[in-house]
Amino acid sequence: MYDNLILRWSLGKQDTVLLSDHTDFQNMLWLTKLSIVSFQRWFPKASFMMFYNGNHFQDFVKTLESIKPYFLYSVQYVDQVNSLREGNLVNPYHYYPRGVWWKWIPFRYDINRHEISIDTDIICLGEPHTWYDWLESKEEIIVAPERFEETKQGTCGDFHGHPILRGKKPLNCGVVGHRAGHDFSDRFFEITKSVDFGRTHDSQFITEQGAINVWAYSLAHEKVANHYVLDFQKNAWIRDFVYFMEKGVTIETVHAVTWHKKIAKALGSIFEKRVCDMLYNEEEFLIDILEVVKKLDYFSRRLITRQIGTERQKETEFLFRSGSF
Predict the structure, then answer these.
(1) Which residue, 114, 91, 101, is CA-closest to 209?
(2) Helix locations, 109-229, DSSP H
(3) Number of helices and strands (H, E) in the chain?
(4) CATH code, domain with 124
(5) How many CB atoms lie within 10 A of CB 58?
(6) DSSP result, 71-88
(7) 0.85 exceeded by the pTM?
(8) Residue-number span of the structural domain to which 35 is assigned
(9) Strand, coil or helix: what is 134?
(10) What domain count does the chain have?
(11) How far is Cα 42 from Cα 63, in angstroms, rounded to an integer?
(12) pLDDT per position as a tens digit, 187-238
């Protein structure tokens, strides 16, 4: 099933985690590994790729392979830095890439296959029916939903005032994919020509998401390509997924953005069991989460407990407010 599909991840010199911090990097490797394994469970016929833009490529591969849980299927690795140096990859930007901008080198690996780029902090916890829906649909592009309703600097960086985004609900670049036979990379890199890289802090991180927003909405506006947005309740953020589970929503993926990665790590054994144990049902899963949450630090505990029971009623407005931590 879906043997004409590439699922790809990117890791290396990220702006969201300091590689000099050994513990943080090891935790990031674990989260990356769990993300890949979680999708391997539901897409056994797909091809899996890891694009790496850091140092010591062979050491990275050896370390990632050794971390549990073990891969269910083989992963193809791409050494982006050396490939760029040797001419096997081309830098499509007018600046040397850093952090999240590496994710799009190349923007498209194989035009003859469906291809989805997935952030390393997204875990597939249940059968991804909404992903199947896109694969069976006609939309040329798939993107992740953004939690917030308005296009602001915090969702689109230096592109937040772009005319094409006026009145639009922002998209999240944690998931971006093309249908086989389509390649809209030229449009993306044309958009990035307006990035004044390094001039602002946002240019090094969230502006990349803004570029994806301009890319997707401009293609739709010109009727060149339509984009399919994954259902937010089924593809939720860590700060919301328990809330949706209590409402009876079957969670497909969770996104551990920003500091929520530490919550994903704290719930690591439960998430691993959910990914690897076909008999681990949702009721047991939720009970185990609530038990572990009791032992978390105040802010992590509060992020989860405010989603449930009477606390949910008290803080619904705060839970779904526009803004961020």
Answers:
(1) 101
(2) 129-135, 153-156, 185-191, 206-221
(3) 14, 10
(4) 3.90.550.10
(5) 9
(6) PSS--EEEEHHHHHHTTS
(7) yes
(8) 1-325
(9) helix
(10) 1
(11) 24
(12) 999 999 999 998 888 888 999 999 999 999 999 999 999 999 999 999 999 9
